[in-house]
C-alpha cells in the first residue's frame, strides 16, 4: 500500500533554492523535449520546404544518427559476448539491434528512446543539467502529454460532443515557470532512517518526525503557489484494518454547495447532511470577493493583453484558500468514512458526472460556487480513507437522480446528448430542498437524489424498504 507525506518548503527553508533551481532546469528540459517533438511532427505537413527551426533539428539528427545506431550495435555485441561465457544450456538468443530510423512521413513520431539517445549523444545542455533518471522522468512527462493528445484526437473524431473543441498540441511551459521533478529511490536516498538526501546538493531534509516506516519509492518536488511541496511516497506492507462490513449495506453521496454532502444508505438509518456553509464562506465570502478586489486593482488602466494578470498577493490568496478547503475536506471525508464504518457499509457510491461543471444550469451565484469548489479533491480523500478499511468507493454518473422519485422507485435512464428520453417521473421538485412524491409525501430533495444514486449501481438496494430515507435528515456542521 502506497502512502504519501508532504513537506512544505517555504522561502526561508535551506532547501528552497535547490528546489527552485532544479524545477527551473526541469522546465528547460520539458520545453526542449517538446520543441524537438513539435519540429519533427510538424515538418511533414502541407509545406514541402522545412522552416529554419525544423531544419536545425533535422540537421542535428542527421549528424548524430550514425553514432546513436553504433551505440545500439555495441550494446547488442556486449550482451552476446556475455552470453557466450555461459554454459550452452543457459545461453539466450540475443536479437539484432533495432536501429533508429531517420524521421519520414511514415515515421514522423520520434520515440522516447530516440530522443533520449539524441540528447545523450549531442550532449544537450538541458538534458545534462539535471541528474540522471530525473531528466528521463521529465522527458517521459512530455511524451505522456503527447500520447494523451493523440488519444484525445482519436476520440474527438468519433465523439466530438464530449469535447469543448478540437484537442490542441501540447504547449510549452512558461519561460519563467517551473516543472515538477521526480526522483526515484536510486537517486534520492534515506540516510540513517532519518534524513532525505537529494542529488547535486549536500542539504538534507529531516523526515524522522514523519514516522515513515516502509520502503522509499519516489520523491516529488512540486511547485505550489510560489513555494514547493516535497512529496515522499512510501510502500508500506500494512494489512487492511479488520472491520465488520455487510455486503448488502450501500451508501450514496450527493455532492453540492449548500449541502456539501448528502449521505443516504439502505440500513434504515436516518440520512446525514453535511452543511456547506463553512466551505461557502471560505470560497465566496473570503476568497472570491478578495480575489475580485485585488484583480481589479492589478488590472486597473491596463489593456486586454497588457500588463500582469497575476501577483504575489493573488498567489498567497490562492494558497490560503487551498489549505482552508483541504482542511475542511479532510474533516468531511473523515466523518463520512466513520459513518460508513458505524453502519457497516461495504460500498460507497458517489455521484459525479464527466464534465459536470461545464455549462451547468444553475443560478449565476450558485453556478459560481459550484464550479469553483474542488469536489474531486473531496472524492479522492473519501476513496483513500475508505480503502484502509476495505470499503469500496465507486463514482457513478447521476443523470435524472434529482427528477426521479426514490419513494415511487421511478425508472432511472442514462442521459445521452441529443437522445430524448421517454421516462415519466412520478414526483417533482416543488422548491429548493423539497421533493414531492406521487402520494404527496415530501422528502429532502438531496436525500432523494442520493438514494437514486445508490439505485443506479444497486437497483434492489431498497427492496427491504425506505423507512430511514424518508425520516428527517441529521445535520452535521464542519468546523
TrEMBL record:
Record's protein name: IS200/IS605 family element transposase accessory protein TnpB
Pfam family, one: OrfB_IS605
A single GO BP: transposition
Keyword tRNA-binding: no
Similarity section: In the C-terminal section; belongs to the transposase 35 family.
Keywords, sorted A to Z: DNA recombination, DNA-binding, Transposition
UniProt organism field: Gracilibacillus salitolerans
The Probable transposase IS891/IS1136/IS1341 domain, residue ranges: 239-356
GO molecular function: DNA binding
Domain Cas12f1-like TNB stretches: 375-453
Protein origin, superkingdom: Bacteria
Amino acid at each position: 500500500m502506497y502512502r504519501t507525506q508532504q513537506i512544505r518548503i517555504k522561502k526561508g527553508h535551506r532547501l528552497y533554492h535547490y528546489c527552485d533551481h532544479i524545477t527551473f532546469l526541469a522546465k528547460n528540459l520539458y520545453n526542449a523535449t517538446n520543441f524537438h517533438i513539435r519540429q519533427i511532427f510538424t515538418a511533414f505537413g502541407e509545406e514541402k520546404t522545412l522552416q529554419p527551426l525544423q531544419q536545425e533539428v533535422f540537421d542535428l539528427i542527421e549528424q548524430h544518427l550514425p553514432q546513436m545506431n553504433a551505440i545500439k550495435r555495441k550494446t547488442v555485441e556486449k550482451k552476446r559476448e556475455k552470453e557466450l561465457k555461459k554454459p550452452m544450456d543457459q545461453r539466450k538468443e540475443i536479437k539484432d539491434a533495432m536501429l533508429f530510423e531517420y524521421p519520414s512521413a511514415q515515421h514522423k513520431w520520434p520515440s522516447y528512446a530516440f530522443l533520449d539517445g539524441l540528447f545523450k549523444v549531442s550532449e544537450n545542455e538541458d538534458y545534462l543539467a539535471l541528474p540522471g533518471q530525473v531528466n528521463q522522468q521529465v522527458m517521459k512527462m512530455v511524451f505522456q502529454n503527447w500520447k494523451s493528445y493523440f488519444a484525445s484526437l482519436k476520440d474527438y473524431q468519433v465523439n466530438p460532443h464530449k469535447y469543448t473543441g478540437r484537442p490542441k498540441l501540447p504547449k510549452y511551459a512558461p519561460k519563467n515557470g517551473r516543472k515538477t521533478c521526480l526522483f526515484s529511490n536510486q537517486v534520492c536516498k534515506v540516510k540513517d532512517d532519518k534524513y532525505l538526501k537529494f542529488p547535486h546538493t549536500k542539504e538534507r531534509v529531516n523526515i524522522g518526525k514523519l514516522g515513515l516506516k516502509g520502503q522509499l519509492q519516489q520523491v516529488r518536488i512540486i511547485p505550489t503557489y510560489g513555494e514547493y511541496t516535497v512529496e515522499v511516497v512510501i510502500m508500506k506492507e500494512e494489512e487492511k484494518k479488520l472491520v465488520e462490513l455487510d455486503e448488502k449495506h450501500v451508501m450514496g453521496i450527493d455532492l453540492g454547495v449548500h449541502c456539501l454532502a448528502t449521505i443516504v444508505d439502505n440500513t434504515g438509518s436516518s440520512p446525514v447532511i453535511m452543511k456547506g456553509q463553512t466551505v461557502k464562506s471560505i470560497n465566496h465570502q473570503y476568497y472570491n470577493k478578495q480575489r475580485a478586489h485585488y484583480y481589479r486593482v492589478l488590472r486597473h488602466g491596463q489593456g486586454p493583453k497588457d500588463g500582469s494578470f497575476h501577483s504575489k498577493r493573488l498567489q498567497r490568496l490562492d494558497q490560503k484558500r487551498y489549505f482552508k478547503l483541504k482542511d475542511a475536506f479532510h474533516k468531511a471525508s473523515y466523518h463520512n468514512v466513520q459513518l460508513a464504518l458505524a453502519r457497516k457499509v461495504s460500498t460507497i457510491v458517489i455521484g459525479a458526472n464527466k464534465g459536470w461543471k461545464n455549462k451547468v444550469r444553475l443560478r449565476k451565484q450558485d453556478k459560481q460556487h459550484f464550479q469553483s469548489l474542488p469536489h474531486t479533491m473531496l472524492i479522492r480523500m473519501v476513496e483513500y480513507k475508505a480503502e484502509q478499511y476495505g470499503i469500496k468507493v465507486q463514482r457513478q454518473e447521476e443523470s435524472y437522480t434529482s427528477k426521479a422519485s426514490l419513494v415511487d422507485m421511478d425508472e432511472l435512464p442514462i442521459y445521452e446528448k441529443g437522445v430524448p428520453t421517454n421516462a415519466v417521473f412520478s414526483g417533482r421538485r416543488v422548491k429548493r430542498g423539497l421533493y414531492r412524491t406521487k402520494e404527496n409525501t415530501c422528502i429532502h430533495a438531496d436525500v432523494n437524489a442520493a438514494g437514486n444514486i445508490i439505485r443506479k449501481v444497486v437497483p434492489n438496494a431498497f427492496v427491504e424498504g425506505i423507512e430511514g430515507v424518508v425520516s428527517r435528515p441529521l445535520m452535521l456542521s464542519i468546523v
